[in-house]
């Protein structure tokens, strides 16, 4: 990899893969996902099912009376019995193995010089909540809507991608001083 052409380097471990080669591999994985499971890639739906499982464990009455949750976990239905749950577990496991093989498994907080570690974690937590809420509103996250929906030329997914890029640009502009 030419470091001048791809200036992003990890803080530890070996260099990242060429982004064009990685993109081609991601396309092949997406195609195989459609071919083998009949579904595209997704993450937020799987994480949502883990959350609903916990809700059903502690508050089954709430799950049985909420229409959105009822379809996933009402009565004796197990929310973890879905194709997306093993996909999310496999993505987490695969990500860990990949990082471990490339020498990048390390507990650290990536942050800019003008932001404290606690502020960085607080912003990450708030951002995660907003992303999860947005994924529920949009009925999918970047992998489910943008990758899978975009690959099927869904107009809603392309609108989602444009909204994500516009939102990310505005947030990056607003919080750039936290990183520089």
The secondary-structure element order is HHHHHHHH
| Low-pLDDT segments, ≥5 res | 1-7
Helix content: 55-70%
Beta-strand share of residues: under 5%
Largest sheet: none
Cα gyration radius (Å): 19 Å
Q: Give the N-to-C terminal Cα separation.
A: 26 Å
Alpha-beta classification? mainly alpha
Kindly describe this structure.
With 180 residues, this protein is mainly α. It is built from 8 helices and no strands. It has helices spanning 19-37, 44-58, 60-65, 67-73, 84-101, 117-138, 142-151, 155-179. Helix 2 (44-58) packs across helix 5 and helix 7 (142-151) crosses helix 8 (155-179). The chain is globular, with a radius of gyration of 19 Å. The model is unreliable at 1-7 (pLDDT under 50).
Task: Give a quick precis of the structure.
With 180 residues, this protein is mainly alpha-helical. It is built from eight helices and no strands.
Please name the defining characteristics of this protein.
disordered N terminus; mainly alpha; 8 helices; 180 residues
Strand and helix layout:
Layout lengths: L18 H19 L6 H15 L1 H6 L1 H7 L10 H18 L15 H22 L3 H10 L3 H25 L1
